[in-house]
């Protein structure tokens, strides 16, 4: 059997079995939330190393290792999107992929997963704290963690313990924009990814990003990009 036929047969059997993978957008959203300081959920409890243990290789330990390598790829790229230096993030990814190969048991791999997540989260936190004064860094962390939902300047100010006007002045000084403009910019950046890369509908994207309805989202998108979402991604 040719490799192409074998691949198509594997894909067909996988689909017919009813097995479904995590969507890329869900994996990215969860890893982004973890890296941006959401302490109320544990990524390793959601995307476990045994998620694809019966799919990614005939041997279970090999499959678990492959699962962990895939997760390292997702988390390292999430780190870069959240401010980490790309060379450092990729080098950490290379290091941990080599560490994966050294482990012998699922218990060891599960322990390594926690280490991987902790180190990448530290990398992102250090990058954010190094770039801006503490109140701005903390506000950015809050905004990034709440992009997929309701995200207000009032909430960011409360999270930092700053007066909203003082926080706005700091944002203007450091980023050249208000907190509200920063929220809009980050939501619009995520909107492009969801629409163009993840191929979500306008309604789905508006809902994920916390807009009250699709019409409001379309108006904001056109105001920011000069085109409607449909015109932009065509």
From TrEMBL:
<protein>
    <submittedName>
        <fullName>AraC family transcriptional regulator</fullName>
    </submittedName>
</protein>
<feature type="domain" description="HTH araC/xylS-type">
    <location>
        <begin position="137"/>
        <end position="234"/>
    </location>
</feature>
<keyword id="KW-0805">Transcription regulation</keyword>
<dbReference type="Pfam" id="PF12833">
    <property type="entry name" value="HTH_18"/>
</dbReference>
<dbReference type="InterPro" id="IPR020449">
    <property type="entry name" value="Tscrpt_reg_AraC-type_HTH"/>
</dbReference>
<dbReference type="GO" id="GO:0043565">
    <property type="term" value="F:sequence-specific DNA binding"/>
</dbReference>
<keyword id="KW-0238">DNA-binding</keyword>
<dbReference type="GO" id="GO:0003700">
    <property type="term" value="F:DNA-binding transcription factor activity"/>
</dbReference>
<dbReference type="InterPro" id="IPR018062">
    <property type="entry name" value="HTH_AraC-typ_CS"/>
</dbReference>
<dbReference type="InterPro" id="IPR009057">
    <property type="entry name" value="Homeodomain-like_sf"/>
</dbReference>
<dbReference type="InterPro" id="IPR018060">
    <property type="entry name" value="HTH_AraC"/>
</dbReference>
<keyword id="KW-0804">Transcription</keyword>
């Amino acid at each position: 059997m040719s490799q192409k036929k074998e691949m198509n047969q594997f894909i067909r059997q996988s689909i017919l079995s009813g097995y479904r993978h995590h969507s890329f957008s869900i994996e990215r959203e969860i890893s982004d939330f973890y890296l941006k300081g959401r302490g109320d959920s544990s990524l390793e409890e959601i995307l476990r190393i045994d998620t694809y243990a019966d799919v990614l290789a005939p041997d279970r330990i090999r499959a678990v290792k492959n699962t962990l390598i895939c997760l390292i790829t997702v988390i390292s790229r999430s780190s870069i999107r959240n401010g980490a230096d790309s060379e450092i993030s990729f080098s950490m990814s290379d290091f941990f992929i080599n560490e994966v190969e050294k482990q012998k048991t699922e218990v060891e791999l599960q322990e390594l997963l926690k280490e991987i997540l902790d180190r990448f989260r530290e990398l992102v936190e250090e990058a954010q704290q190094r770039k801006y004064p503490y109140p701005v860094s903390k506000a950015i962390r809050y905004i990034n963690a709440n992009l997929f939902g309701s995200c207000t300047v009032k909430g960011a100010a409360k999270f930092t313990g700053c007066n909203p006007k003082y926080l706005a002045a700091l944002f203007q000084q450091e980023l050249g924009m208000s907190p509200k403009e920063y929220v809009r910019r980050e939501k619009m950046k995520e909107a492009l990814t969801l629409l163009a890369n993840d191929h979500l509908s306008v309604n789905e994207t508006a809902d994920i990003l916390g807009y009250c309805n699709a019409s409001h989202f379309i108006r904001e998108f056109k105001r920011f990009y000069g085109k409607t979402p449909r015109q932009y991604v065509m």
